[in-house]
Design goal:
Helices cover 31% and strands 19% of the residues. The protein is an alpha/beta fold. Bound molecules: ligand TNX.
Amino acid sequence: MTPPAFEGLVPAPLRAAPAPGVTWTLGPDTRIHTSPGSAEAARIGRYLAELLRPATGFALPVEESDDRSGIALVLDATVGAGDVPGDGDEGYRMEVAAGGVVVRASHAAGLFYGVQSLRQVLPAQIESATRVDAAWVVAGGSLTDKPRYAYRGLSLDIARHFFTPEEVKRFVDDLARYKFNHLHLHLTDDQGWRIAIDGRPKLTGVGASTQVGGGKGGFWTQDDYRVVVAYAADRFVTVVPEIDMPGHTNAALVAYPELGCDGKTYKPYTGTQVGFSSLCVENEQVYAFLDEVVGQIAALTPGPYVHIGGDEAHTLTPARYKAFMARAQKIVEKHGKQVMAWHQLAGAAPVDGAVLEYWNSSAQDASEVAAAAKAGAKVVMAPADHVYLDMAYAGGEKRGVTWAGTVSVKQSYQWEPSTHLKGVPEDAVVGVEAALWGETIRSMDDAEYLVYPRLPGVAEAAWSPRDARDWDAYQPRLANQKARWDLAGVNYARHD
Ligand code: TNX
């Protein structure tokens, strides 16, 4: 059997140079060598060994050593100084020769991405959780790789239907596989508040007691959140927490009705409408509340961003929305974080350094976003008609929603982040994010069905050089991934 080639990688690498006729075989005596003195390289070595042991049954000892036989993970400050300028923190090189595999990177993240590539150039059976009797042959050659965009994300909604920390960790593993580096967690919405806030017990009492369709809901303790943040950080994934405001706040209002305007009471909501709730803009208690919430979330989050939503505040006039967002942004800055928000913030004076997440379809709101980007805002592209993975597929079962139309596998692949929104300067686009909204997602099975096979295409939009992205060339590479999902027990849609 021919071993999988470097050119088959997903996401496509910057450059691959096969060495015809050369192969290396992973065997029972293979050792993993990591740069002496680097705890990070050693940790990545152990991670690699744990990936490779179940299917191979080999011992794969990991040791700090300059030995270059077997598998070597080498921290090398000169990688990036050579013919690939600006490798940044995430680039790597990989050489496969008859004597072994050497991955070199200037930073640990690059070694980690090299490990993900090595995983994909091993035969698909490497994904098996139980021992397989296979020839673990790797094709020879060299690879020079680095990401196109600094921000490569997936947004998960644990508010509409609750998902446990263990389930979310499984998504983190998926992100790592495809070289994503951000996990955006939509923690609060009308149907549920999912994160504990000290001093505000009702948020996770009545505020977390239900979900879409009326199930029992749930919430994460702050320790749960810390565990997911640490698990993600070990895989070079930064968590971006979202507390949606001023709209999408019915659950908070059920818990603390004094955050509303008019002494109203609120009922738990289990439907799927959007845009009907809002914190009260003129109510000082709201800002004291947000100071507590954002302060605690910021303290729990090592990453630079706190996402404050800002979408679909349909009950507010533009002036009230702007007044609210001005104060909300200041609270984020006070707690030492950078503002991230849905692109509606574009029309409401984003602060310096704000990152706008563009989510609409058909380039709606492009001119506002373009004006904000020209004034210095950065943009993460998440156009609903391409990368909202809760949209139903074009063919097959009707799981998911269709407000932005259906999204075929091809449509999720074939779009260009740098030119998608007219008038947004190319260098304002800092990345790409897929989103899985939770209204119709009742189980991991539903979630994986909608995520796969569309997620790897989003990974290519985020990682691969523009000229490497070609639908016809992508299809066989994507097909190769399916054998891996079958072995790893991942559910995926069998149609377009
Ligand atoms: C729009 S995207 C929303 C969400 C929904 C989603 C469903 C965005 C910022 N708002 O509240 O869950 O559509 O696809």
